[in-house]
Structure of indole-3-glycerol-phosphate synthase:
Amino acid sequence: HAKDASSTRGFAQALQKKTPAVIAEIKKASPSQGVIRENFNPAEIASQYEKAGAACLSVLTDIDFFQGSDQYLKTARSVTKLPVLRKDFMVSPYQIIESRALEADCVLLIAACLSDDQMQELSAVAI
């Protein structure tokens, strides 16, 4: 449940603290490249990014195009203190609420995939 999720980790604040601020991406595959990492270990990748000085993490959860998983996000968040963005194709308010239940600190809204009304609605739910 979203109401049971731990407090957010301040994604925007983390970006403002570092110059330059890097959002490091945890991604197993992509439509153009196929599998990017054969030995994909989200916990290890997240820890390495944190040690290297990343300000935040972005975790792909889309299954169909990126071989992502909600569990990757949960794992990455559990092994670091960094804020975590859920990167997926957000098209409904339910997904925003689900993201909070997964303990995502932020979501990505892709304007090119959304109508103006959808963008406003999803933004309002996310805030």
